[in-house]
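Technical note accompanying the year-one report. For the benefit of new consortium partners, we illustrate the data format agreed upon in the data management plan: each record pairs a sequence with a structure-token string. No post-processing was applied to the example shown here.
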Amino acid sequence: MKHYYRLLFLLLFPLLALAQPAHGKKVVGYYAQWSIYARDFNIPKIDGSKLTHLNYSFYGTSYDPAHPENTKLQCLDTYADFEHMEGGIPWDAPVKGNFYDLKKLKEKYPHLKVLISVGGWTKGQDLSPIAASPVARAALAADMANFITTYPFIDGFDIDWEYPLSGGTDGTEVINGAPIPPQKYSPDDNKNLVYLLKAMRQAMPNKLVTIAAGNNVRKVAQQYLGPNNITQYGMTEDISTYCDYITYFGYDFGGNWYDKTCYNAPLYASGNTNDPLYGAAQSESLDELTNQYLNVVGFPANKLIMGLPFYGKKFDHVANNGTNPNLPGLFVAAPRDIVPGCTNPQNPIGTWDGPAACERSGSIEICDLVGNPVTNSHAYLDPNTMLVTPAAASAGWVRYFDNTTKVPYLYNSTLKQFISYEDKQSMDLKVQYIKSRNLAGGMVWELSQDTRGSVPNSLLTQVDTSFGSIVPGTVSISGSVKNGAALVSDVTVDLRNASNVILQTVVSTGGNFTFSNLTSGQNYILTASKATYNFTPVTLTNVTANQTGVVINGTQPTYTVSGTVLNGTTPVSGVTVSAVSGSTTLTAVSNASGVYSITGLTAGLNFTVTAAKTGFSYTPASTVYNAIDSNKTLNFAQGAPIVNYTVSGTVVNNTTPVSGVTVTAVFTGGSYAAVTNASGAYSLSLPSGGNYTVTASLTGQTFTPASTVYSNLNANKTLNFTQDASGSTNKISGTVKNGTNPVAGAKVELVLPWTDSTHNWKSVIATTDAQGKYSFDNAVVAGYTTVTSLKLNTWENGEVVYLPSNLGNFPVPANPTVYNFNTSSTAKTALAAAVNLISGTVKNGSAPVANAKVEIVLPWTDNTHNWKSVLATTDAQGNYTFDNSVVAGYTQILSLKLNSWQNGEVAYFPNNLANFAVPATPQVYNFNTNTVTPPQVTITAPSAATVAIAPGTAIQLKATASVDASLTISSVVFNINGQNITAALSGTEYVANWTPAAADFNKNYTLKATVTASSGATAENTKAFSLQCSGTTCPNSLPGITWNTPSNTTIYQNSFQVVPISVTAVDSDGSVSGVTITINGGTFNMTAGTNNTYTYNFTPSAYQDYPVAIKATDNKAAVTTLNNTIKIAQVGTNRFIPLPSKIILGYAHSWENTSAPFLYFSQMVGSKFNVVDYSFVETVNRDGYTPVLTTNDTRYLTNGVFNKQLLKNDIKSLRDSGVPVIVSIGGQNGHVVLDNVTQKNIFVNGLKAIIDEYQFDGVDIDFEGGSMNFSAGGLRDISYAGISAYPRLKNVVDAFKELKAYYGPGFLLTAAPETQYVQGGYSTYTDTFGSFLPIIQNLRNELDLLAVQLYNTGGENALDGQYYGSAKRANMVTALTDMIIKGYNIGTTGMHFDGLPASKVLIALPACPSAAGSGYITPAEGVSAMHYLRTGTTFSGRTYTMQPGGPYPSLRGLMTWSVNWDASSCGNSSELSKAYAAYFASQSAAKTLAVQDISVQNNATIAYFKNNALSVTNDNEEIAQVDVFNILGQNLVSHRNVQNNKEVLLHDHSFSSKQLFLVVVTDKSGNKKSFKVMNFLN
């Protein structure tokens, strides 16, 4: 075999630009809300790669002069904004309509800023009075801030006020049959606009605030205030003070209203006295307007954005050809039509005008002129050349270009018609003008007007192209920003003139910059800025030539992390402490004193600091310093030694030991490895309890078993490997064939890229032998990582074509890999699949489909891996493949599919492979016009409903599985008891084993089997069975209790009546000896009935919650307790908002804190918090008994004075959204001590006054410090009688009992004590330790919620006798929460705390690390702990086990300190509340409604409300079941129609309120149909 080497020069190609404008100018595009209708231009059609900002237009305002505080944004089209589902919007998407599409557009183009434009021509009439009212503009700004909180993908607001002082609608126009109100004015409009923008900036300090300014050249200096004209109006602030940028209308200068032909958007003045826009001193043109804004108003050029129209104006009845033969028809009379019944003369018919006689616009859009589908066609231009089409020319149409005004027009002298418009030529000239004036960019009205179809976005593309071109007669400056020799990334570079005014700004991701189109001969200053850096400015004088290689130098400080490592109090030496940031790792080792110090941590970088020493763990496990900005002290505590087990064995080839084999054990978070010695032996030492996958590897070899999984490693293991037979050891080899015949002497070329100075570009030829085989020696590819090309060139192989034609840009394989070539393409898919990770075929049944377009969509991953969509086209055999470079750097695939609109409206299946991981090895994904058979899996064992085995015996799990013939089975996984077990194929079944633990017996299980196809599609099958213990070694099983009635534990009664309570109690291995119920202060025996039922008739005596504790005792004295709560509610409502079923409660600050900024209650509307506590009520001068509400007075001012009504309105705004607002008494600075009855009465009456005045829904007891010392350390009787001897204790209990009794059961009473005062009583009881337990015990009926603060406190001993502090994180949460529900003995006092129902208990955690001194755990850890408490599902690292009686499905939710910290930067954009809301939503979805199962089968089902009853009928099929859900997804009614008729009438108390319900109807055939039904109570 001969090798021929040919060295070539390497051409360097530029990197592909990111999907965003590369020219550095702003391009603002307006999108009209109504574009979804006749225009059929939905938001996904917007090309965001050519825009920097998108203004969604329009929103209006709601304004009542009598109540300016209620001023809000107003949606003008709810269907367009939030309801339509065009383009495949999911029906259950939380936001639909255009806002769904805006969110997706932002995800596709992360650089794109999306703003809401407020006002417009017809909806800005109230902006004048709003801007004139301090209250109204503040309310509007606050509503804008709240709007952004609700829709965080919105980046700001744009004010389109048409116009201040004068202009705008006059009251005579009609749209959709309704007159448009006239514009309102105030003499101070210009000043009030500044005040409105100021209010917006204050409410949204980090969001974009912009305006669209007008086009009246002669009036803009009065309408808009800038730096040059503010003094004459007595102002010190102007529009540019608060706006990020200012767009101005570059259109509507001339129009039909002049009854004379003229231009819509002349760049320069015509100078013609016949021009309606002419003025002797000042004419109307873009140049004149720009001069006004720059020179008279004084707006900075770098904030000014010029308007660009994608439309023009049509004129009919042109009187004559005019006086200029070169520009015929220009500036001559063109009267509008006088139409009977219309107030105004009517314009010619425009592009989208409807049939209404009085509503003609005369507006002609470029999409219309190039022949795209419109309402009224004016197709006169070729879409490619934008010249007049032959057909239009023959009809008399001629294009003219006015070289004075720099705009074109169309004129037909026969038809007497004239059209002013814009094309690519005029658009280029306008953009060049923008650049020559150093303006910030261009603004487009409007995106849907641009060309469509085969030549889309012509004008927008021209704008993008023109911004990137060079202006003649200018110079450029380019260079880099460096820290030493290293480029500084993500740096902002400003170009300034000699007066230090910023001319241009570049945000450079890589550190390089270029400024173009600069005036020659000027002095320039270059400055750079980036957090934590200091840069030296560069001054360039008299720049007359292009400047390159300019370097701006910067420096960056470094910091130190230091501390000690201790084992208790003993220093620990030899511990390696590492600080990692990206690829940078800095380390230090602790000395004999346990001291370490890591130096050189670069400012601004994120560092993760950990401690490590073989055999030990350390707390904290890791600490992250984000954007480090100072020296840090971090101390570590050494934990107990880690127990390791070994996995060891040998590797042999037949009987010969194999050395040098790497055996790797992979686990979540890393791996361990060992290499076999000369005897083939290896040994791995692995920490116990881990889940490991063990494999053996050696270059060019494979081994059996391929992999072995050890779950929860708890013993030494022996694992031996056998080496498989191997082929070629070369990494690249294969065969060349003609069909099935080997081809000898074929030349295969391998091309390798330039890699470094010793590994240059090279081409190597391998020649096949007589068997058609070729191979490249490994020395050829040594030192290279990528293969540029592997192919057979036709000119070297007798002009024969071999397939694949070129295997390009793939990694040099780590192991021997075969690449085959053939003259036939039948093997192409397999060949491509051998290299590329994603490939497949597209077929119509069995016939291949050529030229089909397969789209892959990849998500934004980092700054160099943005969102992108790539198309692959199938060859003649239907094969497609994506080069590996397409997915390089990505981990996830958003979508792999064939779009019907790109494939002749043909649907292919699967219709979308969505959200799957980029495969690690080549995978085939096939598509077909025939529906792909979904995967199927069926559990075959265990087959019995009850399985009885002895302890230690394994249960064999079996399932059969199948997938479509075009796919393969990737895996079959069983899930049981929270454990995933991967099955192996044995014959025709997939088999796995599960060995139950002792605690797993005598329970019911649902076994789930999941099959995953190679396409990523999955299917599940479940089987329920009961696991019983058999034999003599079985442990005693606890009795089981099931709640029967009442099924709804909220009972509405007009008078107190008997409530029958029924449970079922069984004992699987014995008998139940008795069942008791504890309710309303007494314990009673329940009456035994048939079928293991036990009953008790309870008669309530008050409208309140009654905690119920039912205990079943078996024949071996084992006890099980079932806790529940029965709520007795009066029919009707009161003023208090009830608690939701699952709670996310947050405290709201009433003070300023820069780290956790103040939030108005109105800003919390729509957040994930569904209960909010106002913090705090304190006592006057800390007297302990006179309540006073703390208020943030500066936030609620009227004329500089605190206005409590504003605070009341603010609280009301949150309550109006259905969120209870509770006032909290105490806190860190609150002090409450009630020594006598007089003080108690003052306290109660004071709280009543606050509650009534501010309309709070309840009170929260948040006593801390001295407030928790009730001087009751000698208490030995926890009952109400017992506490009577302790006045401080009794007065607190009495105070809150009186409040609850006074306001009734709807009044909410909650408490948030610290652990010392609750769980601390388990170990000892003193004046403080456990001091709150008597209060909980005696208020257990009145309390609605208890949230013990698991932060800012020490740990406590739990029920298992172990100590749980904050270092134990999720285990502390589970252990200390379990205590509250289970109850416990109080120290050695002989007293017992009975515990509370889980439905009254919240876990209480800080929102982020800075919110508390200790106790923070990540949301993921907190959710894991809550999920364990609610379901029993274990979590990684769990050491605490719930006591008998758990899990607690009714555990109520989360309390956090605080709403403000959650919304702060520390809270990472409300990470905590969003995580728990998502968790509760997932649990509700799992228990209520499976949306994907709903499909509309027919139109014969009807659901509606009739007299507060829900009527459901089906004309064709009998109704099997009706389920009713509220808008939160909670199941309200689940009715099985046992009568099997076609009509069902349902009654439920929830139907008595006006709300929206989701009704799901299942017919007898299993078909489902869903309805949204509103009960209007009429």
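Partners are asked to follow this layout when depositing records. The chain has a mean pLDDT of 86.
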